[in-house]
Write a structure and sequence with these properties.
CATH class: Alpha Beta
Distance between the termini: 31 Å
Largest sheet: 8 strands, mixed
Protein name: GNAT family N-acetyltransferase
Number of strands: 8
Number of helices: 6
Domain N-acetyltransferase: 11-173
Length: 191
């Protein structure tokens, strides 16, 4: 598997791996099911997904799934993934999706992860990062705004789900892809 580690000194992003299955299952709650996965996970389903993620890394496929890890022991706090090919997105647009497990919410970790993964997306040729959020998901929309994403269009999926788009032009940024230290003002309001 391609070894990718992105870090800002507090959060480290590295590819999801098979040993993350138990932590992921234990961290799944109603909020993650509602906003991210759409259904309760099973061990078999998580194992199959983690194998798929590994295959995508090995093949440099369109999915790059990272674990959001915290601390020197890199405890898995959630996930964030990039999809370089998604129906409805233009060439060069990269979809960003994230979720944190309950004990890790409200600490600014999702914002940090979005900044790190956006730098990676830019380095991999992404032109614009897109976060698509259901209008009722205020926490995810707040992460997008704190990460410098601007409101875009509103779409509706085939199943009728409305999505507000938040976009960030990656070509205008000078991303290092590794280090981002928020200012004192930023760090006081990170989610």
């Amino acid at each position: 598997m391609r070894e990718v580690n992105l870090s800002d000194g507090l959060v480290t992003l590295s590819p999801l791996r098979p040993e993350d299955a138990e932590t992921h299952l234990a961290g799944e709650d109603e909020e993650l099911v509602r906003w991210l996965s759409g259904g309760r996970s099973t061990r078999e389903g998580v194992d199959a997904y983690l194998r798929h993620c590994q295959e995508q890394w090995e093949a440099s496929g369109p999915l790059r799934a990272f674990g959001i890890r915290v601390g020197t022991d890199e405890v898995l706090a959630g996930t964030i993934d990039l999809r370089f090919t998604v129906a409805g997105l233009a060439p060069g647009q990269v979809n960003v999706a994230y979720g944190l497990y309950p004990p890790w919410r409200g600490r600014g970790l999702a914002t940090r992860a979005v900044l790190l993964v956006s730098g990676y997306a830019a380095a991999e040729g992404g032109k614009e990062a897109v976060i698509r959020v259901e209008p009722e998901n205020a926490a995810s929309a707040a992460v997008a705004r704190r990460s410098g994403f601007l409101p875009g269009k509103r779409t509706q999926d085939e199943d009728g789900t409305r999505l507000d788009w938040y976009v960030r032009d990656l070509r205008l940024d000078t991303w290092s892809g590794v280090r981002h230290s928020p200012s004192r003002a930023e760090s006081s309001d990170l989610a």
